[in-house]
Amino acid sequence: IGGGSNVFGSGLPDSATLPQAFADAVGRRLHVVNLAFSGYGAQHFLRILETGLHDDVLTKPRVFVLTVSPELAEQTACTLGYTLAGPSYEVIGGQVKFVGTCADQWGLPLRWLFELTSLYDLVEPRLDGRTPRQKLELYTAILSRVGQVAREKYGVPTALLYFPGPAYAQRAGTTDDEIMVRLRAAGLIVINDGLDEAAFPGQDLWIPGDGHPTAVANRAFAALLVKGLSGVVSLDP
Asked: Of 22, 52, 153, 208, whose CB neighbour count within 10 A is largest?
């Protein structure tokens, strides 16, 4: 399972992370690997698959899972400061191509100095001049490429645990439903994780003052993941 700090488990013990919750939900019958890390996004996951970085632990993959959301289009567009050391991709000739690191787009010392100013927070999302629509197009292209590499190189499908982001989708001139239709058309398994907070009375789904998911939320996400994969991917040992 790949993703950023939400999947990695920031603010939680290992036993409460989404990968562990999913392993528990299937009775620990499968070997579930946490490939997430704080700041990681779709571009990091794609680079992991393309380079075989973790092939030593991906010996018998059954399915790859990646958490996604429209807002993360900013991450793949290299406009967020914490992505500086991460991989950068562009669509060239209709194909998603690795073009270096996000830091290559800026003089790195200059970028670091700029991030220390209050002005940076105001202009960060617009640093490269691309519109939300263009960034979302790149994001969905990278996700489609993840699915393609997973099928062609590893022979397995890719499931996306989709966190709705209606505000960003609207800025990009689309909707969550339209985005999910496009991703499914690219051969990806899309599981809408929209949780109804009213269904969890008296329980925090997000760590107070932090914003990362709680153990309660991760168990709910894991249940959705099991349901979404059942009948599509074998969850038997």
From this structure: 22
Average pLDDT across the chain, whole number? 91
Considering only CA atoms, which of 152, 159, 179 is closest in space to residue 232?
159
Half-sphere exposure of 109 (CA within 13 A, CB side): 0
Contact between residue 88 and residue 43 where contact means Cβ atoms under 8 Å apart = yes
Give the integer Cα–Cα distance in Å for 69 and 71.
Answer: 6
Is 155 exposed, middle or buried (CB count within 10 Å of its CB: 0-12, 13-18, 19+)?
A: exposed
- Report which of 95, 164, 174 is spatially closest to residue 131, judged by C-alpha positions: 174
How big is the chain, counted in residues?
Answer: 237
Contact between 235 and 222 under an 8 Å Cβ cutoff? The reply is no
Record the pTM: 0.90
Look at residue 149 in the predicted model and tell me its pLDDT.
98
